Amino acid sequence: xxxxxxxxxxxxxxxxxxxxxxxxxxxxxxxxxxxxxxxxxxxxxxxxxxxxxxxxxxxxxxxxxxxxxxxxxxxxxxxxxxxxxxxxxxxxxxxxxxxxxxxxxxxxxxxxxxxxxxxxxxxxxxxxxxxxxxxxxxxxxxxxxxxxxxxxxxxxxxxxxxxxxxxxxxxxxxxxxxxxxxxxxxxxxxxxxxxxxxxxxxxxxxxxxxxxxxxxxxxxxxxxxxxxxxxxxxxxxxxxxxxxxxxxxxxxxxxxxxxxxxxxxxxxxxxxxxxxxxxxxxxxxxxxxxxxxxxxxxxxxxxxxxxxxxxxxxxxxxxxxxxxxxxxxxxxxxxxxxxxxxxxxxxxxxxxxxxxxxxxxxxxxxxxxxxxxxxxxxxxxxxxxxxxxxxxxxxxxxxxxxxxx
Length: 405
What we know:
The chain is mainly alpha-helical. 53% of the residues lie in helices and 4% in strands. The protein has a domain at 193-405: Alpha/alpha barrel (Glycosyltransferase). β3 (348-350) and β4 (356-358) form a beta hairpin. Residues 1-21 form the signal peptide. Keywords: Hydrolase, Signal.
């Protein structure tokens, strides 16, 4: 414990001394040399310090050359927010705060954001704004939150009331979109709108559950096209053809995070807990002996499939949090622990200086677009696999925090 405090104190001093700009490699190298990543720290902090060591500015994660408002960076930022709440170490808070000050100007305008794009991904990073506003009282963060809430007011919807994933993907709901939009929406309605929109938030899950669930496996297909016109869509159901672990992981994380804000007496709460129970039961059946899950969830033995980090981490997080909150039986914590042990044994590497890396992260996957993505098994297994991709960094920290590993 004393050692941990020393590390934290050194870090606070270090971050106060170092002034870094994108072009100042000398300062960046100084950051890398000064960081001490002790193996006595929890895995969550070891990963966070490794990230800062590689990327002194949060926007640099994923080798970005300039700052941007981005759902993936928002995912990493949220994990640092949670780590700050766990440790009270201002290093993690300042890492996020500096990002917020960089991508939101003094008037509250969000960098590279266009409301009229109606991209649900843009909402995700808005989750960091609540605490930034609460802690700094800086009005820029309130204005930015209001802008994102305004997007949801006019965001295009399916005829049945579900948010389109993006304007460029008309009539489509993707599992990913539930995590991008609903936790922000839930916290906003809880803190600013007296909870008036929880029915609408529940509707998003209801639509996904109704239209993407596979009755045979209990798993959810990656996406649904209400029009059934997309080449990837099943002509009868409108669903995409395969189960992608990370997309199911997005959905499960959305459920456990939205439940943080939904009142215990709300009539839709039990419904969401039931959805979590059902998908957790289905996902648990496909956990590999290693504790991990495959890129294409139900196809473990199929040639080319691989144990994928980000989806596995999201399942671990949802299982651990769900068990801790009482939404799931306590047995799911054991499944989560088995999964996390699998991550450490199979997918985490440790450098001689203590820096850690997460391997086998699917860089990106989607449907449609240009070049066209057909949602086939071959498509999912052939997408790029990366080390230390942001999709694998944020959920690793979140899962580690929940398990206190």
